[in-house]
Design goal:
single chain; mainly alpha; 73% helix
Length: 151
């Protein structure tokens, strides 16, 4: 699991760095050479989408998605455990819906090309079901110890 965590983390870093580099290139080309590039906006947008979905899976593995825990300290531990099971159930239902409909959406978009880069949009939209499947896996079978995944 450590190697896979490091791979996903590295992928997020790479995508964020690509956004930074491409944006700086666009700024230089636009304001110094007065010759803006047409493809940079799409590449940055696709990198942001990738970072969002891969990052969501990483956060699920770390069990760091936001949740309201204001009342958990005053409730009995048995109730907290039951609430956790209910939350996992609804999260799983949502992630299954994301998997199914994201896959259908990606398949339906396979012929569509991005206007400038001519990348098949199916590749970009396939991030939805893939990240949902990863989050579903991490929700139930992911490593429960952050120390074991990060080090």
């Amino acid at each position: 699991m450590k190697a896979f965590y490091k791979f996903l983390e590295g992928l997020c870093v790479l995508l964020i760095l690509s956004m930074l580099v491409v944006t700086v290139i666009q700024i230089v080309m636009r304001y110094i050479f007065d010759s803006p590039l047409s493809w940079t906006e799409e590449v940055v947008r696709f990198s942001l989408v990738g970072t969002t979905f891969v990052g969501a899976a990483l956060v699920m593995l770390d069990k760091e998605h936001i949740f309201v825990d204001a009342f958990l300290d005053v409730l009995p531990s048995r109730v907290v455990k039951n609430l956790d099971k209910i939350a996992k159930f609804f999260s799983a239902v949502f992630l299954l819906i994301m998997c199914v409909y994201g896959f259908i959406f990606a398949l339906g978009s396979w012929r569509q090309l991005a206007p400038v880069t001519q990348i098949k949009m199916g590749y970009i939209y396939m991030l939805i079901p893939l990240s949902a499947a990863l989050m579903l896996y991490f929700l139930f079978w992911g490593n429960t110890s952050k120390e074991n995944t990060k080090e």
